[in-house]
Every structure is written in structure tokens, then in C-alpha cells.
UniProtKB/TrEMBL annotation:
Family annotation (SMART domains): Flavokinase
Any one biological process term the GO annotation gives: riboflavin biosynthetic process
Pfam families on file: Flavokinase, Hydrolase
Span of the signal peptide: none
Protein name: riboflavin kinase
Pathway(s) annotated for this protein in UniProt: Cofactor biosynthesis; FMN biosynthesis; FMN from riboflavin (ATP route): step 1/1
Species of the source: Brassica carinata
EC number(s) per entry: 2.7.1.26
A GO molecular function held by the record: ATP binding
NCBIfam families, per the entry: HAD-SF-IA-v3
Length: 379
């Protein structure tokens, strides 16, 4: 057994963060701040998202008031912000894989605590919009129930105590740096799921950094494995996007034998934000040509380190000509793996061919094949 393996502690329970880990609070907060700051002639540029992620409500408010030089006190800001936020709470969506994770753990009787820097009352309101969630957690702890919020370990220590567990037996799942620090300070094992892109380097103290909850492997930490993967693919709620094919990065992907038909990112900005980067597959329709199997990446293509998140769909068919300008419709039905970096172009290309084989085979399974006839693809 390797050193790291023999040192790895197995977990018997899970302490999980809420905002940015299970639900996309950030989306709603950004929308509110964008409008709210206009009132003071300021423009929300999203950069503060980095600074407020994982903070207590008071710290986050202080940061915003100071950074934007608002002519109001923190209390006044809060008294204006919270009613706006409460009115939008029902619009906060669960993050991909969140529902699946907590239902899986609950189904296997794994004790779970919700441990958040938010206030207890706010935690309760937020989860009330997600059916069945409250029942999944035997313990809920907010930062107003301990003396110090994260990065202090108090919240996790209190959650472990209430679960009757040693902190060393707990697996903490966290999106923020303060949360990861809190989990480690408590003596727990910590899996980080950064909610903001390209931040992996800040999470060095975590035991593992994953890209999204779709990538969590509970068995790595002594917890029951997921059983929903089929033939190296994970079924997802199908989503649909379409539009005319435009010019992509012009990197000559075709020369590599991997042409990817790009859509204008403006037309599906919301879907791009909602779906974690990674390699997915599904069906592609071109009105005059037919329906084809398709494998694609979503993200920043780490090998090329793009600045824009894009979707790169490769239609698994040999076309005799380009089809720029034609309407392309996609139904994405399953997930394969997170995006990765590679030491060489050859190894990237080899991996993409592996993805193609996985997708081609999986799409013959009835549960994925049935979408081939979806009218969206060709209407
Ligand atoms: P770009 O940078 O413009 O996306 P690519 O080298 O990725 O250029 O080529 C993509 C183009 O190739 C598509 O827009 C489409 O017109 C054409 N094409 C030909 N065969 C395929 C295929 N099997 N899958 C995707 N696009 C294809
Ligand atoms: N780019 C990456 O940097 N990392 C990846 O893991 C990756 N996976 C991909 C998987 C598939 C199925 C496809 C179609 C593309 C992938 N790409 C990835 C994007 C790739 O870099 C881009 O399409 C290039 O232009 C291909 O030559
Ligand atoms: Mg392309």
C-alpha cells in the first residue's frame, strides 16, 4: 500500500456546504447586485464574486460596501439587500449532481449535515424550495449558531459533534477556499468543488479538487459508490441547444480529424453557465442531412487554455463538405469525464478518440438511443 493510501482516512458521514456547492446562489446574488449597484451609479463586474464566495453574510456585505465605496453603512446595505434576496430565493437552482449526490447518500443511510456560513434561518428558507432536501440532513448548522464562521473550524466541529462523529471520520464537500480551510482545520477529509473556473491552484490544502459534483467518487472515501454509471457514461437530464453553425477558433481541428461545429455562444449563454465543463455526448440534427451521433467538450479546453467557455461538438459522421450557416440542433444526454490537460497534442487526440468510442457505443443503449427521434433535432 502506498504512503498516501495508508494515510487516507475513511469517512462514515458527510458535512456539506450549501451555497455554491449544492445550489447556485451566486447566479441570483449577481443578478440582484447588478441592479442594486446601478442605484449608486456603480457597475457590478462580477470580479467581487471571487472575494465574497464562502464568506459570512456580514463579511460579504462589508466587502461589497468597501469595494464599491457605497455611501451607506453595512447595516443599511443589508436591510436593502436581504428583502431583494429573499424575494428571489425560489429562483436559486440546484447545481448539477447535487440532487443525485444527496439522494444517493441518504438512500444508503450515510449521515449528512448541512454546514453553511449562511444563517440558520436563511439555510432553511433556501432548502425549502428543493423537495426532499430537508429530510436528507439530520443536522443543519449556520454561522449564527457558532462563535466563528468559516474559515474557523467551528461550524464543522459542531456539525460532527451533533452527528456524534469524530471530525476525522467526516468528509467535507466545499466550493470555497474559506470552507476548505475550515474543513481541514476541523481535521476532516475535504473534497473541493470550486464554483468559479480556473481556481484549482487556490485549493492546495484540499484532499481532492474535482470539477463538479458529477465527478465525485464516494468510494474513494469509504462511502457507497454510485451505481448509475452505464458503460462509462453518466445519464443526465437531457438538454437541447441549437443555432446556425459559425466559424470556431479556426485551429484547424479538421486537420487533426476532429472538426467541431460551433454555435454562437450568445444564443446559449445560460446553458453554458449552468452546465459544468466536461466531455458529453448526445445526438446532433442537421435539417437537410439527418441525425448523427455526437460527442463534445464544454469548457475552456485546458490544453489550449481558452478564455471563453465554448461547446465543441464533433459529429460522428464523415461529411463530404462543410456546413457553416446550417441550423444545428443538439440533444445532450450523457456525461463522460471532466476536461483535462495533456502533455502532447497526440495524447489529447487519442483521448478524444477514446471519448468517441465510449459515445458511439453508449448511444446504442435504448435509454440514450430513444432521443434520436426527438422532433427537436430536425424540426
Ligand atoms: P472551426 O474552427 O471553424 O470550428 P473546425 O476545423 O473545427 O473549424 O471545423 C468545423 C467545421 O467543419 C464545422 O463547422 C462543419 O462545417 C465542418 N464539419 C465537417 N465534418 C464535421 C463533423 N464530422 N463534425 C463537425 N463539423 C464538421
Ligand atoms: N480540449 C482539452 O483541452 N481537453 C480535453 O479534455 C478535451 N476533450 C475533448 C473531448 C471531445 C470529445 C472533443 C470533441 C473535444 C475536446 N477538447 C478538449 C477540445 C479540443 O481541444 C478542441 O476541440 C480542439 O480544437 C480539437 O483539435
Ligand atoms: Mg470548431
Amino acid at each position: 500500500m502506498s504512503m498516501s493510501n495508508s494515510l487516507k482516512k475513511l469517512s462514515s458521514c458527510v458535512l456539506i456546504d450549501l451555497d455554491g456547492t449544492l445550489i447556485n446562489t451566486d447566479g441570483v446574488v449577481s443578478d440582484i447586485l447588478r441592479k442594486y449597484l446601478c442605484k449608486y451609479g456603480k457597475q457590478w463586474d462580477g470580479r467581487e464574486a471571487l472575494k465574497i464566495v464562502g464568506k459570512t453574510p456580514l463579511e460579504a456585505a462589508t466587502t461589497i460596501v468597501e469595494d464599491y465605496g457605497l455611501p451607506c453603512g453595512v447595516d443599511e446595505f443589508n436591510s436593502e439587500f436581504y428583502p431583494l434576496f429573499s424575494a428571489q430565493m425560489d429562483k436559486i437552482k440546484s447545481l448539477p449532481g447535487a440532487n443525485r449526490l444527496i439522494r444517493h447518500l441518504k438512500g444508503h443511510g450515510v449521515p449528512m449535515a448541512l454546514a453553511s456560513n449562511s444563517s440558520r434561518a436563511n439555510i432553511e428558507s433556501k432548502i425549502s424550495y428543493h423537495q426532499g432536501w430537508k429530510e436528507c440532513f439530520s443536522v443543519i448548522i449556520g454561522s449564527d449558531e457558532v462563535s466563528k464562521g468559516k474559515p474557523s473550524p467551528d461550524i464543522f466541529l459542531e456539525a460532527a459533534r451533533k452527528l456524534n462523529k469524530d471530525p476525522g471520520e467526516c468528509l467535507v464537500i466545499e466550493d470555497s477556499v474559506p470552507g476548505v480551510l475550515a474543513g481541514k482545520a476541523a481535521g476532516a477529509t475535504v473534497v473541493a468543488v470550486p464554483s468559479l473556473p480556473k481556481q484549482t491552484h487556490l485549493y492546495t490544502s484540499a484532499d481532492e479538487v474535482i470539477n463538479s459534483l458529477l465527478d465525485i467518487k464516494p468510494e474513494k472515501w469509504g462511502l457507497p459508490p454510485f451505481q448509475d454509471w452505464i458503460e462509462n457514461t453518466l445519464p443526465i437530464d437531457p438538454w437541447r441547444i441549437g443555432g446556425p453553425v459559425i466559424k470556431g477558433f479556426g485551429r484547424g481541428s479538421k486537420v487533426l480529424g476532429i472538426p467541431t461545429a460551433n454555435l454562437s455562444t450568445k444564443d446559449y449563454a445560460e446553458e453554458l453557465v449552468e452546465h459544468p465543463s466536461g466531455v458529453y455526448f448526445g445526438w446532433a440534427g442537421l435539417a437537410t442531412r439527418g441525425v448523427f451521433k455526437m460527442v463534445m467538450s464544454i469548457g475552456w479546453n485546458p490544453y489550449f487554455n481558452n478564455t471563453e467557455k465554448t461547446i465543441e461538438p464533433w459529429l460522428l459522421h464523415d461529411f463530404t463538405e462543410d456546413f457553416y450557416g446550417e441550423e444545428l440542433r443538439l440533444i445532450i444526454v450523457g456525461y463522460i469525464r471532466p476536461e483535462a490537460n495533456f502533455p502532447s497534442l497526440e495524447s489529447l487526440v487519442a483521448k478524444i478518440h477514446e471519448d468517441r468510442e465510449v459515445a458511439e457505443k453508449a448511444l446504442d443503449l435504448p435509454s440514450y438511443a430513444k432521443f434520436k427521434d426527438d422532433p427537436y433535432l430536425t424540426k
